[in-house]
Every structure is written in C-alpha cells, then in structure tokens.
Write a structure and sequence with these properties.
Layout (H helix, E strand, L loop, with lengths): L8 E6 L3 H12 L6 E3 L7 E5 L5 H11 L5 E5 L9 E4 L4 H16 L49 H8 L10 H6 L1 E2 L5 H15 L2 E5 L4 E5 L4 E3 L4 H8 L9 E5 L1 H13 L3 E3 H13 L3 E2 L8 E3 L14 H10 L4 H8 L3 H13 L3 E3 L3 H5 L12 H8 L4
Helix pairs in contact: 6-9, 6-14, 9-12, 11-12
Length: 393
C-alpha cells in the first residue's frame, strides 16, 4: 500500500485501446492499491506507453516533444529498451510496476526524466544468449567460451539446400482439419522430446549427464552450457532424428573428476557445442517444416527475444520472420502470407524458436497487458511443459 502521505500518481496511458485502459485501471486500483490512477495527457505526471501498439514510435516522439521532462514508463512484450525511459516487460506484475512507479516518483522529485538516467527495472527473464530488440541490428551477444567449434558463424542455407531438411510439402488450408493434422508432430515421438527432458534434468540438477548407445555418445555439461559429441552434423541428424530413443540408450551421471577430464578432452578435440545451438538444430531437423502438436495456426506469435543469429543454423527467411514478429505479432499463416514464403519455412523457424523459448502465442493486447493473478493453466503440449523448465541462460 502506498504511503498515506503520497497521493496517487497521475498516469497518461498512450497507445492503448479501451479494453486495455479498463484492465490497467483495475490493475492500478486493486493489485497496486491505488498507487496511481489514469489521467488525461495534459494533466498527467507520468506517461505510460505501449510499444506494441500501432505507431508506438510516432506516439512516443510526439509525447516526448510536448513533455520533454515527463517520466515515461515503456511497456512491451519483448522488453524493448528506449534510452531515458523506464522499461517494463509485459505482462505486468505488481512488483515490477511498483518498482517502475517508484522510479517515476524519484525522477519527478529530482526534476523530471531529463535530469537523471533511470535504473533498469529488474527482469528475471533476461537471457545472455539473446539480444535486446533495441540492439538487434547493431550487435550480437556471444557467450564466453574457449571451444572454437562452439563459436562457428551461423550457417545460412539457401532455400534449395534447406529443402532437404524441411521437405517440399505445399501450403495447407488452415480450415481443413486433415491438412492441419498433417503439419503437426508430437515431440515425444522423437529423440527431440527425450533430449529436451535430459537437458531439463541436467539444468535442474546441475549434473553432467552422458547418453550412450551403440552409435553415439552425447555428454551434457550444464555448468558450461555445452554438449559434447564427436559426431558431425550429417551423422547427428541420422542418429538423433528418429522415432523415440534407441532401445540400448544408456543414461548415466558423471562424477566431478570424470566430468572435468572428459570436458578437457572434448575441448581439445573441438567437440563441444553450445546447448542452445544444439537444441535449435535438433528442433529444425525433427520438425521438417512441421509444428508441435497443440500449436495454433491462428493465434498471433510474438517474439520474446531476438535470436543470437551468429551461432544458429538459420532456415531461409529467418531474419525476415524474426523482424516481422519483433515489429508486430502475426499468426503462422499470416506470417507466410505477409512475407510471401512457403508455410513450411515459417513452421520450421517457429519450432526451433519455441525450443529456445524465444517465441510465444499472443492474445488480445488487453490479455497480455497484466500478469494473471492466478496461475490459470492452459492445455499445453508436452513440449511446452518441457521447455518451460528449460532455463536457457
């Protein structure tokens, strides 16, 4: 509850529809305990701008020109940062909103937004292997590591080469149930689903896990975010893109000494790969232009994080799809239509991005504005439940 001596902060909500305004008003009144209230733009002390709205950039510039010293709280699904503003990721939580309000009050007390640089609002979902959308055309963030193999430049395949991975299936009619079923796959029917579970187990426990069968050995080093295998991609694709896990697959946990020795040996052999990059290409190989069971073709998809393009196997049009979703959420079908590309390339990219939790389904803008007060769970596929536990850092 705000201090009794403090009156509610007057906030002008910019770029929001009436449903979002109603949601925000209720959010301010009950969860935030009247810490602030909606006000007209001229009477407000603080501005709140939805950067996912149409013409958000223009609205921001117009408002900043009229009120250069007014604190601005910027909301976005991607966590987009704008210099000199208080940035908060949607959906809003009470804790993050109260922190943003506190920063706005601090700015007002010191003379406005132009007098100081706001501290960033903490965001537990920050990922060191993704790039903030604001920097998407300027930098690519790489993790620190000594393995040359783990730092190869991304392989950009042309459409002809990539056809061997995604097939040549024609576009489907989303209204045809049989055709919809034909573009879906169950991750648990493939090695991909099993590997997802092993990655989740390794990250949760911190244990080094080795998988062995008559064809291959794969060792997961969660502490270094690396996997080790001496197989090259053609052999990996043959071994790992199969239905279910091999019957002779053995899983074991390595002791500290043994794990350290094996990591050193694999590092010398340049046989280490980034865990994210490995999971991404395994998702591509498995999907072959399909999407996981339970994926909606009609719900818009939003980009949580910009992929680190420097270390990923990129399907054709990956950059265009990413840029489109970063600018405005689109459904999978709408994406293919807007970019005039085959649906299978959109499906393949979505499957890989989902494996790294870089994308998610978007609801109405008002639905995505505020974090649900109760954990109302939706019917999610096995893949979604697995990926939620994967703390890709």
């Amino acid at each position: 509850m705000p201090d009794k001596k403090e009156v509610a902060l007057r906030v002008a909500a910019i770029g929001m529809d009436q449903r979002s305004l109603s949601t925000l008003q209720m959010f301010f009144k009950i969860p935030c305990r009247n810490s602030c209230q909606l006000a007209e733009e001229d009477a407000a002390e603080v501005a709140m701008l939805d950067m996912d709205a149409i013409d958000a950039g223009k609205l921001f510039e117009e408002h900043r020109e009229r009120f250069p010293d007014r604190p601005v709280i910027v909301l976005s699904l991607s966590g987009q940062a704008i210099k000199g503003t208080i940035n908060v990721r949607k959906p809003l939580s009470v804790a993050l909103m109260l922190e943003a309000i506190a920063q706005a009050r601090k700015q007002l007390a010191t003379g406005g937004a132009g007098k100081q640089t706001p501290d960033p609002v903490p965001d537990s979902s920050t990922d060191s292997n993704v790039v903030p959308l604001k920097q998407q055309e300027k930098v690519q963030v790489s993790r620190v590591g000594s393995s040359a193999a783990a730092h190869k430049a991304a392989l950009q395949l042309d459409e002809k080469e990539f056809r061997s991975l995604v097939g040549s299936a024609p576009d489907i009619d989303p209204g045809n149930a049989d055709q919809r079923v034909g573009v879906c796959f169950n991750p648990d029917d493939y090695m991909f689903g099993y590997i997802c579970k092993v990655f989740a187990e390794a990250r949760k426990s911190g244990s080094v896990i080795r998988l062995e069968d008559s064809w291959s050995t794969l060792t997961v080093f969660p502490g270094q975010d690396r996997v080790a295998t001496e197989l090259k991609d053609p052999q990996l694709r043959t071994v790992y893109v199969m239905s279910n896990k091999p019957k002779d697959m053995r899983q074991s946990i390595l002791g500290t000494g043994q794990a350290e020795r094996e990591y050193q040996v694999m590092e010398e052999k340049q046989a280490l790969q980034d865990m994210d990059a490995f999971l991404w290409k395994l998702a591509l190989w498995t999907s072959r232009g399909r999407i996981p069971d339970g994926t909606s073709l009609s719900i818009p998809v939003f980009l949580r994080h910009w992929p680190n393009m420097t270390r990923l196997l990129l399907p054709p049009h990956a950059l265009r799809i990413t840029a489109l979703w970063a600018h405005q959420p689109h459904s999978l079908i709408q994406t293919a239509s807007a970019l005039r590309i085959p649906q299978r390339f959109v499906f393949a990219f979505y499957s890989a991005a989902l494996a790294l939790d870089l994308v998610g389904p978007c609801r109405r803008s008002s639905d995505m504005l505020v974090e649900p007060s109760t954990a109302a769970s939706e019917n999610r596929s096995v893949l979604a439940r697995i990926l939620q536990r994967l703390k890709i850092a």
